[in-house]
Structure formats: C-alpha cells, structure tokens
Amino acid sequence: MTDPVTDMLNRIKNAQASQKEGVVIPFSNFKYEIAKLLENEKLVGKIEKKGRKAKKVIEIALKYENKIPAISGMRKVSRPGQRIYSPAQNIKPVKGGYGISIVSTSRGLMTGKEAKRQRLGGEILCEVW
Fold first, then answer.
1. Reduced to 3 DSSP states, what percent helix, strand and coil does the chain have, rounded to the nearest 5?
2. Whole-angstrom Cα distance, residue 124 to residue 102?
3. 3-state class of 32 per DSSP?
4. What is the pTM for the complete model shown?
5. Which of 3.40.50.1100, 3.40.120.10, 3.40.50.620, 3.30.1490.10 would CATH assign to domain 74-128?
C-alpha cells in the first residue's frame, strides 16, 4: 500500500456504498486527525481508537439520512507522486461551499475554510462532499 490516506478514503466510500454501519481502519495519528475533522464537520458519526500497539484501529460510525450516505463523494488531491501545495488565497471552496477540503498546514490538519481564515497555506490532501 503506497498511500494510507487513499486507502482510508476508499474504505469509507466502499463501506457507505454497501450500507455498513461503520468501518475499521488501521490506526495512525495522521488518519485519526483526518477522521476527527470529518467528525467535526458532521460527515461521519463517532470516532473511536481501539486496540493496543500493533493492533490499534480506528472505528468510524457512518452517517446516513434516509439510507443516503452523508458523504456523497471524495477525492484525493495530493498524491505521493505529485504533491499539491497552495497558498491561503488560492484555496478554493469545494462544490460551491457544500464540501470541505482537508489541508495539511504548519499548524496541523484543518479544513480549507479554517486555513483560509487563519491565512495558512499548505498541502491540499483531499476533498470531501
């Protein structure tokens, strides 16, 4: 597996396509921070860390409204072969403001709106709508 973030996004997308209640993802602090951002934006349900040492996982409860997933789409912007960096003034809204972009800044992970508000640029990791 080359890119763990892409793997995480694909697991969430596949679990929602098959109407699962939740998804289990191998733990890393980086993926946990991304999951917390999705939870704060109310795109997924409760996030939990489980397990110890090498068997640590992240359990993500998925959200649905009338059997329609809360996340209708997501895409990875910055890839291992081509990193995409953007200054704060060039961070664009996702789907006309209905989605979020996740940006890795010098002050940690945050949404595109928050990065723009704090005037911080960084690597655009992914977009979720």
1. 30, 35, 35
2. 6
3. helix
4. 0.94
5. 3.30.1490.10
Contacts of 44 (CB under 8 A, 6+ apart): 12, 35, 38, 60, 61, 62, 63, 70, 71
* pLDDT string in tens for the chain (129-residue length): 679 999 999 999 999 999 999 999 999 999 999 999 999 999 999 999 999 989 999 999 999 999 999 999 999 999 999 999 999 999 999 999 999 999 999 999 999 999 999 999 999 999 999
Q: Is 70 helix (H, G, I), strand (E, B) or coil?
A: coil
State the residue for tokens 């733990």.
Answer: 27
Q: In the numeric block, which tokens belong to residue 92?
A: 């664009």
- When computed from its CA atoms, the radius of gyration of the chain, rounded to whole angstroms, is 14
Asked if residues 83 and 24 have their Cβ atoms less than 8 Å apart, the reply is no
- CATH code of 4-69, in short, is 3.30.1370.30
